Automatic annotation (TrEMBL):
Full protein name: Squalene/phytoene synthase family protein
GO molecular function: transferase activity, transferring alkyl or aryl (other than methyl) groups
Highest taxon in the source lineage: Bacteria
Signal sequence coordinates: none
PANTHER family for this protein: BIFUNCTIONAL LYCOPENE CYCLASE/PHYTOENE SYNTHASE
Location of the region described as Disordered in the Swiss-Prot/TrEMBL record: 169-188
Pfam annotation, one family: SQS_PSY
Length: 188
């Protein structure tokens, strides 16, 4: 099935095809529910969504490694290398996830700001274990949740510019203040 998806997405270069296949395997192995949800997308939308998932998963794996010898300084360095590889601007990397996500970002003209916000939140995960107030938590959630949605919008075919769509989204704190089934708010 991946061949049909890659063909539908117009991805014919062998190096790119392998990079997108790698992202799809990561998504299938680690994001089972998310992976199944991608089956609801049009075939040409699946590979770029897999690339975005692969990038986010790779960053998360850097942070959540169970290797006790991998200290915070090494994790920070690896996250910085991932960031540098993404923002390098040229296809100088052999890292298949970076090859696919950079191709996706270029092809769909995805603004770099959501990637910057995402990586900033990943850096917060290295040292912050508690947020002093709602604003600090909202800053984290903007990068860890909202940024992903903004990355996906161009792939889904947003009918308005992404910046305009972002302005119409509820603020990140709406994620923690939605009504519960009892009709009360979960916001503290």
């Amino acid at each position: 099935m991946i061949h049909n998806e890659l063909d539908a997405a117009g991805i014919h270069d062998p190096r790119l095809r392998e990079a997108y296949r790698r992202c799809r395997r990561i998504n299938a192995a680690h994001g089972r529910t998310f992976f199944l949800a991608t089956r609801l997308l049009a075939p040409d939308q699946r590979p770029p969504v897999h690339a975005l998932y692969g990038f986010a998963r790779h960053a998360d794996d850097i942070l959540d490694s169970l290797d006790p010898d991998l200290g915070m300084d090494v994790r920070a360095q690896r996250l910085q290398e991932l960031s540098d590889g993404f923002f390098a601007g040229a296809d100088l990397t052999d890292h298949s996830v970076l090859v696919a996500v950079r191709h996706t970002a270029r092809r769909y003209d995805i603004n770099t700001a959501p990637f910057e916000d995402f990586l900033a939140s990943m850096r917060m995960d290295l040292t912050i274990t508690d947020y002093p107030n709602r604003d600090a938590l909202n800053d984290y959630m903007r990068g860890s949740a909202e940024a992903i949605g903004l990355q996906v919008l161009p792939i889904l075919g947003a009918v308005v510019p992404v910046a305009e769509a972002a302005r119409t989204l509820p603020p990140s704190d709406a994620l923690s203040s939605s009504p519960t089934s009892s009709g009360t708010s979960t916001k503290t």
